[in-house]
């Protein structure tokens, strides 16, 4: 498909989020996390350039600590707390990478972390969260139960909530991905990142608009979890979609803050089907020799489906993480 | 098992190979291949350090061009040729990474390459060699037939033979792996590399002995392809072993030149069983988030089996390549 351009573009500077996350917040985040986070490499492969008909620069967050970009935002949030707040610990709800990221960040600061996890969460993810020293709090597998369990924890312990994406500190942390990429690669014509809750793409959009205004900015989303695509097209937040995708990191919906950031800054959301996502994941493993999860591969899948749009360009592609169950790979078919 | 120390160590400087490959040849190789080869990253993972009880620095040749260190040696050999010799092209026999490496190096120099491939070679490897533009010459799947086909080609075309490992130019090229690693990491206590024909370990041994004499040097070899281990222990070249290992890059035997280099310089060969190699490969994928082939994983497998020997040390571990059939992974069991 051709990338969808949000039309008409809303006027800039009309939401309160502008005051909350800006380049300066992202630069502060970068300084805050530098003792803990990896500067991840940018990899290339001739074979993928040939396939795509453009120059692909892959920002490899699968090499980030806990195996995903999520460590950046969680680390920034945890180390931004004043000592009194930090002393009460942090809490979040997550069955995935953000839970592990918050657990590790809290351990590095020497404070407690509690993660509300639905009872049906994958054992391997639960184990990862526990392995970084967080306390796991079980809840029924509904949003209402998760919210109630989280609220109860906060009321009882005074712990600070660090939401996986609807949190300016988290968004600023994720923005350091684009900050690094733009330092590592000159003259990027287009930047593509996966979009689930929108924290990564929001942070990257803010950094890129400030540092490289001519770079076009694209989200990549599974067709079967297209709430961000549909919300931007409708110009209102739609959160009634039921995602059904292999991309377990992209099943969340945009929040008001990420919706507001994205509608002002990005050029569009590109979609990719499930078969294309698996094929792209296999291409990344084969040619880059790296392990990435399906949520990362949606970027290459969407780009290949819209390759005529990027012909000859220098494209930055954010590969968001590499936490995949090696015993349950989606191939051979 | 405990690493085997070659005992007694033969006197140094007793073979003609000393004159052929030395640090200067490796420095020349580094300068020759720098326009073409990747400087590959060194990766680390806390989880693997914890498992091994030491500090592991993985030199990731899976990111080298054609997906394996073999490009270094082939590139050095091809670009070391004088123009008249080069004009006749190059030839080798290989069903694996060296064939692809020589094909790419020849293409980069703009000369022809012919690769003698046994009829029973894997389709995927054959396709890789062809994809870099080499001419494939089929032969019956015996050493005699391969040698005869190669000799006939040389007689007819005047092409230069570039052996996969029994060639000083190739050994010097492979030595650039250690040269880079020692520049990237200070104070390496021990270095481990896989050993098949011995070209990689020989080059690394020469570079390391010259630049970091206190670093101990270890080969890692499958128990079921232990010709190098047995040859060094017997202090004579044994080439009657029939390898039976998943490590398709390590089924070759030492040649006189690599045997002579290794017996003078390395501290021993460590062995690993097939199950341990597969488990180590999975650990590398899981924790480093990279795709490496079984021949790479023999290093970690052997190290974990001898972990008490390296306790607390800084260990350089050469991961030799990442060319693996993603549709036929050795797990789940």
Describe what this molecule looks like in 3D.
The structure is a homodimer of 333-residue chains. With 333 residues, the first copy, chain A, is of the alpha/beta class. Chain A has two domains: 17-69 and 167-319, Rossmann fold; 70-161, Rossmann fold (3-Layer(aba) Sandwich). Chain A is 45% helix and 14% strand. Chain A has 14 helices and ten strands. Chain A has helices at residues 17-20, 23-33, 46-52, 70-80, 83-87, 97-109, 123-131, 143-157, 168-184, 199-211, 227-234, 256-265, 274-288, 294-305, and strands at residues 42-43, 55-60, 90-93, 113-118, 135-139, 160-161, 190-194, 216-222, 268-272, 314-319. In chain A, helix 6 runs parallel beside helix 7 (123-131). The longest helix of chain A has 17 residues, at 168-184. Chain A is globular, with a radius of gyration of 18 Å. Chain A starts with 16 loop residues before the first helix and ends in a 14-residue tail after the last strand.
Give the overall pLDDT of chain A as a whole number: 92
The assigned structural class of chain A equals alpha/beta
Low-confidence stretches of chain A at least 5 residues in length (pLDDT < 50)?
1-19
Rg calculated over all Cα atoms of chain A: 18 Å
Detail the topology: elements first, then pairings:
The structure is a homodimer of 333-residue chains.
Chain A lengths: L16 H4 L2 H11 L8 E2 L2 H7 L2 E6 L9 H11 L2 H5 L2 E4 L3 H13 L3 E6 L4 H9 L3 E5 L3 H15 L2 E2 L6 H17 L5 E5 L4 H13 L4 E7 L4 H8 L21 H10 L2 E5 L1 H15 L5 H12 L8 E6 L14
Parallel strand pairs in A: 2-10, 3-4, 3-6, 4-5, 7-8, 7-10, 8-9
Antiparallel strand pairs in A: 1-2
Helix pairs in contact in A: 2-4, 2-9, 4-6, 4-9, 6-7, 9-10, 10-12, 13-14
